[in-house]
Amino acid sequence: MSLETRLLSCVQPWIDAPAWRVALSGGLDSSVLLHLLARLSHVQQLPPLSAIHIHHGLQAQADAWAEHCQQLCAGLGVPLEIVRVRVEGGASLERAAREARYAAFRERLGVDELLLTAQHLDDQAETLLFRLLRGAGVRGLAGMPPVRALGAGKLARPLLGVTRQELHSYASVHQLSWVEDPSNENLHYSRNYLRRRVMPVLTERWPQSASALGRTAMHLREAQLLLDERADEDLAQAASTAPFSWLTCPSLDMTVLSALSPARQRNTLRRWLDLLGTAMPDSDHWAGWDALRDAAVDAQPVWRLAGSELRRSGARVYWLSGDWCAEPPQPAAWDFVGGAQQLPGNGSLTLQGQGELPGLLQVRYRQGGERLVLAGRRQRDLKRLLNESGLPAFVRARLPLLWRGDELLAVANLPLLSDLTGSGLRLIWTPPGAAHDQAVLPPSQV
């Protein structure tokens, strides 16, 4: 079966996409992919085809590579967009370049458009070996998926079943030229070491090693799909209604999670964290979950992750990110003049209802010792009222309080505490992250 036929079979599910865009580096693999698609477009009705070249500016030849891509696309009659990105330095320049590249792709991919990249079977085999040597689990060993979401569209890898040698043969037959990145010869990079030193030895002893490793990745990907299905079932059980509907932090029922085996707990949490866009913790870091799960009921355990954290309160575990992970606002006071008012790092506040503002008002946070006069002129200690409400402890330092001079008038959002007595007004707080989407549930539950 020809490469064109195999490629067309792989991209058939997206034949009605608004546009196809090829990630073009100018190297062998992406040059062949673009050439194949351009040829197909002459004999098949395909979506509009264009290419994107990311100019990292990291090599002296970067401008020449962009010019080569321009000439290649001009010869094929394919529009090209050259995007210059800034790569931030760090421990891994390779990772930083990749993050900058995919950020540019996400920004430019329209709704339902398809980005096609040229990773092939040998790349998949190297990825599996690389992740195996790093101790990856099933998800990591499943390798690169053939398709995944990217921004408003999707990313597809239609050449994962094609070997590097097949691509090279195609390029030779069609007299294609391509650029060579000198960094691909640098054995300091682990992937280059695997490609140059390890894979040739394996192929000498087992000629079909790349194909075998590719099949292994496919089997593991299927196993991961089954694990995700099980996790989705467990998430649906654990994602019961939280007691405070206005609290936008995603949460799960600890009672349901604790009833699962430890392996199913980790599987469910991995799925949840993945849906929330949180980096997976490594094996040793899972001890943080054990400590959070087994903490005393009245404790306030925290499991800190990359860019987010889990907190337990009562019978629920909450996922916090963004402003929620910063220190609560320091004690301060803001004049409140009505309307929606932004609170620094803490969402916004407004008064709902019909009525006049009862004098000069200020917004403050708890400092301790506050007392509130309830309906019937009963004065109660605020700490006791919050304990009775069951409001999670991590929320209380952020909870806006409305004052008139030395008199506490209302506590935002809480029943009976948020009404300004006799005014017809109610204090409403929109916490940070209220626009967070509902990716806390598996797709079938959203």
Shape assignment: elongated
- Spatial strand sequence of the major β-sheet: 3-2-1-4-6-5
Distance between the termini: 41 Å
Largest sheet: 6 strands, mixed
- Binned, the helix content reads 25-40%
What is the domain total for the residues?
3
Number of strands: 20
Structural class by helix and strand composition: alpha+beta
CATH architecture assignment name of the largest domain: 3-Layer(aba) Sandwich
CATH fold node name of the largest domain: Rossmann fold
Mean pLDDT: 90
Unreliable residue stretches: 435-446
Number of helical segments with 4 or more residues: 14
Domain Lysidine-tRNA(Ile) synthetase C-terminal: 361-429
GO biological process, one term: tRNA modification
GO molecular function, one term: ATP binding
EC number: 6.3.4.19
Tell me what the structure shows.
This protein has 446 residues and is an alpha+beta fold. It folds into three domains: 3-222, HUPs (Rossmann fold, 3-Layer(aba) Sandwich); 239-326, Chorismate Mutase Domain, subunit A, CATH 1.20.59.20; 333-430, no CATH class. It has helices at residues 3-11, 28-43, 62-76, 93-108, 121-133, 138-141, 164-173, 190-205, 209-238, 254-258, 262-275, 287-294, 382-389, 393-396, and strands at 20-23, 49-55, 80-84, 114-116, 147-150, 153-156, 251-253, 302-305, 308-313, 316-321, 333-336, 341-342, 348-353, 361-364, 371-374, 378-381, 401-404, 407-411, 419-420, 425-430. α5 (121-133) packs across α8 (190-205). Residues 361-429 form the Lysidine-tRNA(Ile) synthetase C-terminal domain. Its EC number is 6.3.4.19. One of its GO terms (molecular function) is tRNA(Ile)-lysidine synthase activity. Its main location: cytoplasm.
